[in-house]
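Order emerges. As here.
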Amino acid sequence: MGKIGIYGSSFDPITNVHLWTASTIHHRCKLDQVIFLPCSNKRKDKQMKTEDEHRWNMLHLAIKNNPAFSADDYEMKQNAWNISTYETLKYFKSKYQQDTIYFIMGADLLVDIGKGKWGNSDLLVQENKFIVMARDGIDMLKTISSSPILRNNDDGETFHLIDKGLAMEISSSYIREEFSLDGEPRYLLPEECYQYIKKHSLYK
């Protein structure tokens, strides 16, 4: 039985912080694999202007040299507008039945789940395991204890809380803004992704 982390994001574009986060979690949580899961551009809470093909290509360029990293386009291929993390995790648990599946997320998302803002929030927490990365200004233990959804579905192994040790919060939106204004975000993302964006004139 292996341990697999599902790392979902828009990856528009993937950044060095995404890679560092995945590497940190892989090492500290003794995962066998981290699967990068780019979200669908059809989700109501995401408004992406970058074509799926470009996000997918850059993701592969970024992770190709790490055998512990892989990518899955499950959410990209979904046609439904109401794609939920609950259904996505059901898919991965069915695909990897002999392994333990963890959903990787930031503490800001833990807050939203605790407030019931995600589809099937109660069942999502009850039936799954999470690796939660610290975010500045968020007390993860207090977040869990103050939410009935989180605390009443926590069996002691539901949440694996990780403090990265460094506050590295460079966002994809910052990189997109830099490209759009002729800035220079070169060393904030993998070199091959930087060159890919230049070649295809993305984020202009």
